[in-house]
Amino acid sequence: MATTTDQQLVLARPRAPRRPAARRNNFELYSWMFMRISGMALVILVLGHLLIMNILDGGVHRINWGFVAGRWASPFWRLWDLLMLWLAQLHGGNGLRTVINDYARKDATRFWLKMALYVSMVLIVSLGTLVIFTFDPNITN
């Protein structure tokens, strides 16, 4: 009869790296800390945005070109929306990067999924930032 010491069970460790780390750094620690801090900031930014845009002063029925032009006339609201855009994109992209690392089995698949993620993040942040900074409330038809 075999004992437990005789039977060496080898179980795959979930989330264990498939290859040894080439270098040691604290990127994952900083990434984890960023997720917590940006998540708290996003709660404040998004709830404030929802309160102002959807609940106060008539709700969504008052939102039109004039409302956006009046709101973005203030640097405070442009900064608010810019922070919300950047933090939401970086927070979501970092979370998706973690999912890709956890579930993509092949190195090539992981690489191309991350490249698609990074390209889409840069495009969305660039386009959103361009709109926020170049919005002209005095446009004529």
UniProtKB/TrEMBL annotation:
InterPro entries: SQR/QFR_C/D, SuccDH_FuR_B_TM-su. One of its GO terms (molecular function) is metal ion binding. The chain crosses the membrane at residues 33-56, 76-94, 115-135. The keyword Iron applies. Its main location: membrane. It is found in: Membrane. Keywords: Heme, Iron, Membrane, Metal-binding, Transmembrane, Transmembrane helix. The keyword Iron applies. GO terms for cellular component: membrane. Gene3D superfamilies: Fumarate reductase/succinate dehydrogenase, transmembrane subunit. This is Succinate dehydrogenase hydrophobic membrane anchor subunit. It comes from Solihabitans fulvus.
